[in-house]
Specification:
alpha/beta, Rossmann fold, 2 domains, eight-stranded mixed beta sheet, six-stranded parallel beta sheet, 14 helices
């Protein structure tokens, strides 16, 4: 099968769970014997336009104009309507939120090449929710409806997409992680050194992830447990604001900004932590939650209907923006024994294994042929 994968960003050009998903899916499908090309936008002008990596081909085009985190690239359109695009059996686009996926849908509208779209989360992390509420009822719905199949991570997300008026076929294929890599046993990270409990935040420092809530919750816990320390793994446009907030709350000495951590280091980071906090306003099924759970690290997340059932098997969920609730959950989980944690790894290994994700995705793509 010749697959054209369309994604605004790709790991390791940029960092994030969605970007890594695209890379790992392409790598593993290539290892299965499929011919995979990823069409993406160039982050750095010095990057090669065409590159072979991990068994698949990367085609990078100029990113064009960026609006609310979305790159409006006419070069993507030129490639999709170029002669080279006729070589593929199927197009697999990632995230309905991007202009590149809108263009893939437009191509499917006028040409007879099957299209699959993976929904990595209904709402953007980098734009106001009301903007995307309007978008989902108009262009977003139209984009979904051009697809021959839409992949959703959970039954809940499938129903949410249906509620938008989407009539395309929808298949639930859970997100997954490498459960052989993320384990509770093994070395810890040299980047983390503290005598007391460790709270982890893993994610981009952007509005949608709400890292300031993690800072404020840690500050409240520090008022009662002075040995708690917070480590933030990730970078983004809010970094300066979050650093300033830690200073204002007088917990800058217990708040550590590690920036982007290489993927190979992350299993050690999770093993070094006692709890993961993710207070996002919107998510799909984030890899960070699954990775922490596979490492037997309990999770506190915002109460999102598509993730609550996963998190609550061994952790707790809190209403978005409820800092006092996050602080109370942190105190409870830091004081709890490890009996609840053991079930979290079992949940991930049985239901969210990456090998299964790749196999089921590939099977559904083959069905389109």
């Amino acid at each position: 099968m010749r697959i054209l994968r369309v994604a605004q960003h790709l790991y390791p050009d940029t960092k994030g769970g969605g970007q890594y998903h695209v890379h790992a899916m392409s790598r593993d499908q290539a290892a299965m014997g499929h011919d995979v090309t990823v069409l993406t936008t160039r982050v750095d002008a010095d990057q090669p336009r065409i590159e072979e990596t991990d068994g698949y081909t990367v085609v990078r085009v100029p990113k064009g104009v960026t609006v609310a985190g979305n790159q409006i690239s006419l070069s993507v359109a030129r490639y999709l309507w170029g002669a080279g695009s006729e070589e593929f059996d199927v197009i697999h686009a990632h995230s309905h939120l991007y202009f590149s996926t809108n263009l893939a849908a437009l191509k499917r509208r006028f040409e007879d090449i099957p299209l699959a779209i993976t929904n990595h989360g209904l709402y953007s992390q980098s734009a106001p929710q009301w903007v995307f509420g309007w978008y989902l009822k108009t262009l977003g719905r139209w984009t979904f409806n051009q697809a021959d199949v839409v992949f959703c991570y959970t039954d809940t997300d499938r129903e949410r997409v249906r509620d938008l008026g989407v009539t395309s076929r929808i298949e639930v294929v859970s997100n997954g992680i490498d459960t052989d890599r993320f384990t509770p046993d093994g070395p810890t990270s040299e980047l983390i050194a503290a005598d007391g409990p460790i709270v982890l935040f893993v994610g981009r420092l952007v509005e949608g992830k709400r890292p300031e809530d993690a800072i404020r919750a840690a500050s409240q816990v520090r008022g009662r447990r002075s040995d708690v320390e917070l480590y933030l793994c990730g970078d983004g446009p809010l970094r300066d604001e979050v650093v300033e907030l830690a200073g204002e709350l007088e917990i800058d000495d217990a708040t550590h900004f590690l920036g982007h951590i290489p993927y190979d280091e992350m299993p050690k980071v999770y093993r070094s932590g006692d709890v993961l906090i993710l207070p996002s306003r919107a998510e799909g099924v984030p890899r960070t939650v699954l990775e922490a759970m596979a490492s037997n690290v309990p999770v506190i997340s915002s109460r999102l209907e598509q993730t609550a059932g996963i998190v609550e098997c061994s952790g707790e969920t809190v209403e978005i923006g409820n800092v006092e609730g996050y602080a109370a959950s942190l105190e409870r989980l830091l004081a709890a024994d490890s009996t609840r944690e053991q079930s979290s790894r079992q949940t991930v290994t049985s239901e969210y294994n990456w090998e299964r994700t790749v196999r089921r995705t590939t099977d559904h793509l083959l069905e389109l042929l």
